[in-house]
Known about the structure:
Number of helices: 16
Structural class: alpha/beta
Order of helices and strands: HEHHEHEHEHHEHHHEHEHHHHH
Number of strands: 7
Shape: globular
Helix content: 40-55%
CATH architecture of the largest domain: 3-Layer(aba) Sandwich
Radius of gyration: 21 Å
Largest sheet: 7 strands, mixed
CATH topology of the largest domain: Rossmann fold
Number of domains: 2
Amino acid sequence: MTNIDPWSSTEIQDNEHMFSEFGLEKIPDAVRKKLDHHLFRRGIVIAHRDFGKVLQRIETKKPFINITGIASSGKLHLGHKVDIDLFVFFKSLGAKNYFAVSDIDAYVSRPKIQNMNDATEIAQENIAHLLALGLEKKDLYVQSQKEPRYYEFAFEISKKITENTYRAIYGHTDLGKVSAVLLQIADILHPQLEEFEGTMPSITGIGLEQDPHAKITRDVCKRLPYKLETPSFIYFKHQSGLQEGKKMSSSDPDTAIFLDDSPEEIKRKVNKAFSGGKDTLEEHRKQGGNPDIDKTYEILKFHHPDDDLVKHTYQEYKKGKMLTGELKTLCREFLTETLAKHQEKVKKTMKIAEQMMK
C-alpha cells in the first residue's frame, strides 16, 4: 500500500489511486448541484468519507459540526484559502463552527518553529486573515488557549493508538508529529463531547494528502468510551504550487501567492508561474494551450467568483485564441484587486486578533 505523507510539500499527481487504493468515494453530480458553490461546481471538491449523513442534516436544516484548522506555521496563502472558503460555505448552511488555529501543532511538528512565541505571533496574523475572509471571533479557537477538558481528551485519545497502528498509517513515530496528530484528533472529535455540542454528525474539509489524519481519527472515534458519530470528511484538490510538481507551501515562498503579497510580488510570481502555453506564438495559435497544467489558469479556477469567465478563459486558451501573456495579465489583475481589498480588511481585523491573543 502507498504511504502518504501529510507533511510533505510534494503534490499528489494521481487522484484516481486515492479512490481505488484508499476507498474514498467520489462526489456524485447530484450533490454538486445541491451544494451551490464554485468548489463543488468546478470539481475542486472531489471525494468524501461518509458525507451522506451531513448532507441529510443540511437538507433537513438540522445542526451539524463544521470543524477544520490550519497550523500557524507561516503566512496564509491561496492554498489555505480553499480550505477556508469551504469552511465558510458550511458555516453559511447552519453549522456549529470550530476553526482551530493550531499553534501547538505548528510548534511540535514544524522544525522551523523554534518556540511557542513564534507560533503565537503567526497565529495572531493568521486570525486577522481568517476574520477578513468571513469567519467570526466565535468560530475560532487557538489550541494553546483551549480549556482543560480539551487536553484531557487528547490524553484519552493517546491511549487508543498503538505504536504499530501509528507507524502503519504514517510510516514513522516522530514524537513531535505524534503529538500533533493527537491534537488534530481532539480538534475533530471534541465538539461532540457533552461539554460542547453533544453527539451529532461533523464535517471536516481536507486536502487529499491529509487522508491519513482522517483514517486514524475515524478509527480512534470508535474506540473511545463516548457516544460519538464517526466524523465525515470531504476532500478537495490541493491547489498546486506555481512550479510544476509542488504544492503551495509557506516554507517555499516562490511556490505560493500569499494573502499579504504586494502587487509587485504578485506580478513577479505570476510571470514566473509554470505555463501550459506552447513554445512559440505560431504553435500556440495553431495547437492551443493546455489550461489543465497551467498554474495561472488554476488560480482563476480555484478562486475567481465568475463561472462564465473561468469557463470562457479555459476555452479560449485551449483554442489558442488567448495567449499566455493575456492569461497572466487577467490573473495578475484579478489577484491584485482581490488581495488589495482583503488586505484593507486585515488592517481592521488585526485589532480583534491582537485582543484574542492577549
